[in-house]
Amino acid sequence: MGKVYKYGDHIDTDVIIPARYLNVHEPNQLAAHCMEDIDFEFKNTVKVGDVIIAGENFGCGSSREHAPIAIKASGIQCVIAKSFARIFLRNAFNIGLPVIESDCAYDEFNEKDEIEVDYGKGWMINKTTQKQYKVNPLPAFMMHIVEKGGLMNSIREER
Amino acid sequence: MKMTMTQKIMAAHTDQAVYPGAYIHCDLDMLLGNDITTPVAIDAFQMHQHKEVFDRKKISIVPDHFTPNKDIASALQCQKVRRFVQEHKIEHYFEIGEMGIEHALLPEKGLVKSGDMIIGADSHTCTFGALGAFSTGIGSTDLAAAMVTGKCWFKVPEAIEVELIGKPNGYVSGKDVILKLIGILGVDGARYKSLEFTGEGISHLSMDDRFTISNMVIEAGAKNGIFPVDEKTKAYMDANHLDYPIYEADEDAIYIEKITIDLSTLEPIVAKPHLPSNIEKAAKLNHILIDQVVIGSCTNGRLSDLRIAAEILSGKKIKKGLRLIVFPATQKIYLEAMRAGYIESIIEAGGIVSTPTCGPCLGGHMGILGENEKCLATTNRNFVGRMGHVTSEIYLSSPAVAAASSLTGYITTPGGNYGEGL
Ligand code: SF4
Q1: Distance of CA B394 from the midpoint of ligand 1 (Å)
Q2: Domains of chain B with bracketed CATH
Q3: How close A91 gets to chain B, by Cα (Å)?
């Protein structure tokens, strides 16, 4: 269970982790600046298990994997958005940060609402309003990568 | 049958069935990494039991973002990359002195060509679509996995046809075409899809124009943006003595949407803060005063871009108090611009010319913006804080508009008569 951080449409990777911090790549150093150009307090208030809910096209822009890495290292358990930018989506799966497309989450949750998610079984609950919602199951191909714990593990035996 | 150009190239690189929505694994012809994304890929690479690259000739590593190194932290990242490159004897690695911005450098060096399947851990890897290649940006873990296996997974995209007709007027260039297209599609209008360019208008676009257009298709969310191979493409590749296959879309290829742009009706366009889709005619923005002009980047740092800027600036002085920063995209372009006198014209007008680097484009170094400053740039992104302070603002334009504006201090349309195109 965690609390909701809510952002709008087109949250780009430059605001998730600004390029001025990309001279390092250690996850905790990146997490120390996560979201700061759009939400300065995020890095100080985020707790393990919290969830980001956003509108359309989350993670657009640069291919920097530092963006999902920073979000994951912040303690965020998953990102739920109306839609995701293509490269962000694959990066998130590849490093094991679950991302969920949902039409209703953005309208049904407010900032700081308590949320519980089970992406395996396909539901989420707004603990603040006590309402439950379905979420779409992941495509089988992606589920395989997630179950293996990321892309590198899933190709471990391959050459 | 019924395949788009992108699907044809994919089919030539996999045994699996290729149809929109299918997940397939493709063999790769070239992999690309830079000084920001490669260190993360190296960490992921070390997790694999083989710890060997699949083919040292099919990997290009170009440290271009924070080079020449701007601080100790970025120097350490480059050292890590350099050690990896030496250990694995990666053939295509370019230190300063022979480097350039990756997306301008690889075509120039003849490392990418039509029919290729290319991935790069940098979103603007889509640039090589101008050559008739499938080329797309991926992340560091994808790069790491591909360095081991030589393959990458893709979801086969649906395509949008972008038909270009007519001939552009005056100073209208590839940048205006792509800004117009992003304005039509919005920043996610082509998400997960290919943009396939068709139409006789293409013949009026130089290779530099096409590189600029393919470069920015990611700004509409596209997976790739591909041009057919014509005489100009062949001449470009022949100059590098390349052998190349040519793929064409089937006559009955399926496009989910068709957009037609008449190049003859376009006029210079500017994208206002804070999205590349937020377009307006340059002529309508002459009330916007600017503090800095940046000409360069993987979008518009090629020789023809510097030529146009130099022609507009030649014999004139930039507005007192404005900063004009020009950065050629590669060493070769830098040298050719110097020989042609472009660099001299720019410096005499009051601009500065930097060594090739990504520099200010991503707010790295060499021209960071302060509080509330406005910048007109020929780069590709005007997101919040992209070039510096979170309150600064970026306007995107062609080199012609950027150069003309550096003379006046406000957004200025260079000469010529334009129709009612926007
Ligand atoms: S010039 Fe800008 S957009 Fe191009 S690769 Fe460098 S940082 Fe990215």
Answers
A1: 15
A2: 5-262 (3.30.499.10), 268-408 (3.30.499.10)
A3: 6
User: Which chain B residues are closer than 8 Å to A86 by Cβ?
Assistant: 191-192, 221, 223
Mean pLDDT by 10 residues, chain B (422 residues): 95 97 95 97 91 96 97 97 98 96 98 98 98 97 97 96 97 98 97 97 98 98 98 98 98 97 97 98 96 98 98 97 98 98 98 97 96 98 96 98 97 69 40
Evaluate: CB of B34 within 6 angstroms of ligand 1. Answer: no
* Domains contained in chain A, CATH given: 2-158 (3.20.19.10)
Extract long-range pairs of B365-371: CB within 8 Å, 24+ residues apart. Answer: B365/B66, B365/B70, B366/B325, B366/B327, B367/B292, B367/B294, B367/B323, B367/B325, B368/A20, B369/B291, B369/B292, B369/B394
- Is residue B361 within 6 Å of ligand 1 at its C-beta? yes
**Cα(B134)–Cα(B119) distance, rounded to whole angstroms?**
8
Å from CA of B375 to ligand 1 middle: 16
Cα torsion angle, B207, B212, B215, B220, sign: negative
Between the CA of A103 and the centroid of ligand 1 the distance, in Å, is 33
In angstroms, the separation between the Cα of residue A121 and the nearest Cα of chain B is: 23
